[in-house]
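*Target chain*
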Amino acid sequence: MLRLENVNAYYGESHILRNVSFTIEPGQVVCLMGRNGVGKTTTLKTLTGLLPVRSGKIFFDGADVTKEPTDRRAKRGLAYAPQGREIIPHLTVRENLRLGYWTRSGSNPNGAEQAAFDEVFGLFPKLTQILDRPGGVLSGGEQQQLAIGRALLSNPKLLLLDEPTEGIQPSIVDQIEDVIIGFKNSRRFAILLVEQGLHFAARLAEKYVVMAKGAVVASGKSDELSAEMVKQHLTV
């Protein structure tokens, strides 16, 4: 599904990612972990094409996408809900969601649009109450639900979630966790989840990848995270 091979990326002349390599299998949930500033979000930006790769390769769904633009990767089924949510503030909730559907990969038979929107509204019923509100006036929790819903409407093969529970109220955190667990159980698409907390990886992910100083320092099954690794690289 996804394979990174010795990926190096820079901000200007600052070497941020250092020979990053890991894989994600179809339907798998992987947690990308590490303290702030170790390169987790930068890794997601290289996957989406928002940040160019200086050296190394990225393969997605059987194709080398290292040089492909962001929109082409989205059409292949790579969806991204960024940490800052990046809701378009002057567009309504309905219009933001429609942007996600317009990037949809694969065929769209009759009735597909309504079914796709119905699924998102079933997962996040709050969105049906605020469809005509501008994105810029929403609360953090509402924006996060919108960002994930918009990504889901693109019909992803791999969903990238960058700290989806950061800074939002506990009730919505629980809702988002339940949504991720539901997709994990259905194995309809793979998920790469960026989180710092050990509890999140243990509950949601099958596999972990730990980063430190721009490099992958450990990976394995989530239930095999060691106490020493937590002490060195993670938060509880």
